[in-house]
Amino acid sequence: MSNRMSTENELQPVPGETPEAGERGSELRAAADASRVLDKMFEETGETVGNPKCANPHFITENVNVYYGDNHAIKDVSLEIGKNEVVALIGPSGCGKSTFLRCLNRMNDSVESARVSGTFLLDGQDIYSKHLDPVLLRARVGMVFQKPNPFPKTIYDNVAYGPRIHGLAADSSELDDIVHTSLERAGLLKEVRDRLDDPGTSLSGGQQQRLCIARTIAVDPEVILMDEPCSALDPIATARIEDLIDELSQNYVIVIVTHSMQQAARVSQRVAYFHLGSLVEVDHTNKVFTNPTHKLTENYITGRFG
Amino acid sequence: MTDTIKSLSTHDKVLAGLGKRRRSERNFRVFGLMATAVGIIFLAVFFTTLVANGSSAFMQTFVVLEFEFSEDALAPSGQLDLEYADFDGLVRNAIRREFPEVTSRRDRRELSKIVSVGAAYHLRDLLRKDHSLLGSHIQLAVPTSSNVDMLMKDNISRTVDAAQRTLSDKQIAWVDELVASGKIHSKFNTALFTNGDSREPELAGIRGALVGSIYMLIVTIAISFPIGAAAAIYLEEFAPKNRWADLIEVNINNLAAVPSIVFGLLALAVFINWMGLPRSAPLVGGLALSLLTLPVIIIASRAAIKSVPPSIRDAALALGASRMQVVFHHVIPLALPGMLTGAIIGMSRALGESAPLLMIGMVAFIVDVPGSFTDPSTALPVQVYLWADSPERAFAERTSAAIIVLLVFLLLMNLSAVIMRKRIERKW
Questions:
Q1: Residues B73, B35: one domain?
Q2: What's the pLDDT at B20?
Q3: Of A145, A149, A162, the CB nearest to B320
Q4: CA dihedral over A67, A72, A73, A76, signed as positive or negative
Q5: Which residue of A105, A150, A199 is in closest CB contact with B318?
Q6: Angle at the Cα of B329 (from B328 to B332), degrees rounded to 5?
């Protein structure tokens, strides 16, 4: 919605413009018209193109609908996420990819106005079942947020928090092991080995984000959700996180929301393109970025809008 | 019109308006400076008058006299009875011994008014502690009456007509004689801190009120902080956000603005008349003040809880913490400094409050220092009010002194809160 608005704003006639600019205006108008036609076309069919299924699914979602009050934020989305797979969710701002992600570990529960419907099966188990405590679910589905959000505690306590509340370590030496392994796997141990008692907030942005990842894997979840984990980081820190995602995908299912097409191309095996709350296209990353099926996907990845 | 605007460049247009912008900025700064200065001047005037009026109350005039614990006066029947012994006579004899030339009844009565009536109590206490004093002579500094004290502090003018003063010309002459012989001197006024209230200014102290205030604050903090914090946590973290929550919020905000005397009436009706708790007791005072501070604490605590970044809650939730764990492991530790600030603001308000205490009988004249939460007592601000209302000249300086003590108490309380908060904050 927002991108369409901005396109229209650009089309406002500006007095005293040169004829060339006018030409460009009409070009933009044509593009906006085309996009509107596409939106309409999509609304009529509403079908997801590509292949939302996968051979070895770990997380199955079907006919997911999310409402924020009267706002229909997610429209009938079905998506399967396979074992040891990195799935990237892309799309313009406000298209519902973060909302969808937050459904996967029931983080939307704490949003008063949110209503979620549809089927969510994690390893065959309904995660919205009354019998499943969200605490248990979140121990299996971890999450890394957009902005690094370490607790205002020491580095050690940050990583140890999850294992502590879940009682994962029998004694303090076992807890030490978990903390060290987690930091090691998050690629942070070398940098913080000598200052585990420093506050987590004293680290740099990239280190903080890796600390958050270490904190997440300390609980040893099955799935890790990442909501634009690199959007607040510089390119070098981003590269480190991307390498880390690659390594983690050996052991975990990863769903990552990203605004960077390059990042999606680099880290993911499959890409899901969201548009205005609908899932437009899902396919292998190569296929989507080289030969997208849907016109909307093509427009987005070629930078026409978004 | 359009042409003139067009012909000017952005640089020129900005330049044209720049002077006005700078002027308004300078004016605003001057206003701000003036406002701050006015505030500081008021504060300075307030403190200087307070200290100027009150500092003299911390000194007290004493007269050194020789007392004879004569058996004739104390045990005329041969048996010492402390209750009925004539200690006043002892004091009278002692002062008369200084001025043997005074013989007329009238003059002698005036003479004995130089010494405080408290001197007799002092002698009695001495003798009670040590019976062997009976029959001995001792030299002792005893407080003078408040009128003599006022004269020594130049609060009673010698030049005004004798009929207009509380000391006669003769009394002034005697005092001058005692000064000349070095028998009158001034000492730190310990009675101010060790005694309860009294009708005699030189014997009146703030201990009763201070202890009453401390008892009350203990009750207030013990009741209002846990309840206020629990209510704030529930409303912020657990209560559903609906119309009821809005209604409760509006009501709490209104309660914070209710005049304090109304809470006094409520306390009178509920705690004293209905529940039958004792009148004038710090317990009831503390309960009344709890009603007063609860909304303040709730509002401040909610603000503190609200200011904990949601990202911290999300992080804990995403790790699988239950809502209780999120609240107790993350939200409260981060919100605690703010909650404590709220509690201290509430306590400071409670400490300075007198209106609700008037309603529950804490304005009574109470001499004894309270020993428990249910003993009759008064409070510092009420003591200030009582003394300010007293006609004796010497109570004026004691009023200021009581205000100084109240302010110091307040300052110490705030200071300890700041230190406590700093310590908690450093931990995180």
A1: no
A2: 93
A3: A162
A4: positive
A5: A105
A6: 55
Higher pLDDT, B418 or B219: B219
Contacts of B101 (CB under 8 A, 6+ apart): none
Cβ contacts (< 8 Å) between A149 and chain B: which residues?
A: 309, 311-312, 314-315
Which residues of chain A have a pLDDT value below 70? 1-25, 27-28, 31, 34-46, 304-306
> Which amino acid makes up residue B53?
N
Co-location of B188 and B254 in the same domain: no
Range of the domain at B380: 207-424
Return the higher-pLDDT residue of B134 and B290: B290
Residues B133 and B220 in one domain: no
Q: How many domains does chain B have?
A: 3
Nearest to B304 by CA among B339, B264, B349: B339
Buried b (16+ CB within 10 A) or exposed e, A194-205: eebeebbbebee
| Residue B227: HSE in the Cβ half-sphere, 13 Å Cα cutoff | 14
Interchain contact, A219 vs B318, CB within 8 Å: no
CA dihedral B354→B356→B362→B365, nearest 10 degrees, is: 50
| B315 and B416 belong to one structural domain | yes
Put simply, the answer to whether A147 touches B311 (Cβ < 8 Å) is yes
The answer to whether the complex's ipTM is over 0.90 is no
CATH code of B324's domain = 1.10.3720.10
pLDDT at res. B230: 95
User: Pick from B181, B202, B223: which residue ends a domain?
Assistant: B202
Among A152, A162, A199, the residue with its CB nearest the CB of B319 is: A162
